[in-house]
Amino acid sequence: MSNKRTGRMPPDHPDLVRDRSGGMCEGCLVRPAADIHHRRFLSRDGKHNLANLAHLCGNGNAAGCHGDAHSGACPDGWSISAWERRSEDSVPFIDLLGQAWMFDDHGGKHHAGNPDT
Q1: Nearest-angstrom CA–CA distance, 46 and 91
Q2: Most confident residue range from 4-13, 69-78, 89-98
């Protein structure tokens, strides 16, 4: 993936995101993940940091959880506003079961409010 404005995604980030998700969609937790989604879109000044990346099912911007993330039909944290001042590692990602997760820039995640899980 290349973008002149944001540069290239570090080559290890796709593997780190896949390791974090275990290959399953971090949104629905049911289907295999196929896409890496930028929670703060690149067009909204998003970067390739790991806390900004979610592993979602779908096919590009058209289907599955990845399509929902781009349509606005998703829980909080899937699409982060350009106006949001908090960094991505401070914005919880709410899966479709209602669980709130915090992603970090080291490839990890934990339940929001409980860093031990």
Answers
A1: 13
A2: 89-98
100-103 β-sheet, strand order: 93-94, 100-103, 109-111
Q: Which two tokens stand for residue 52?
A: 């900004």
Residue 2 has pLDDT above 60, yes or no: no
From residue 106, give the alpha-carbon distance in Å to each of 56, 76, 115: 19, 22, 14
pLDDT digits (tens, 9 = 90+) for 80-99: 998 999 999 999 999 999 99
Distance CA 79, CA 83 (A): 12
The encoded tokens of residue 100 equal 């709130």
**Is pTM beyond 0.70 here?**
yes
Main-chain dihedrals φ then ψ at residue 109, nearest 5 degrees: -150, 155
Task: For 32-75, give the secondary structure using H, E and C.
Answer: ECCEEEECCCHHHCCCCCHHHEEEECCCCCCCHHHHHHHHCCCC
pLDDT of residue 58: 87
Q: What is the mean pLDDT of residues 51-75?
A: 85
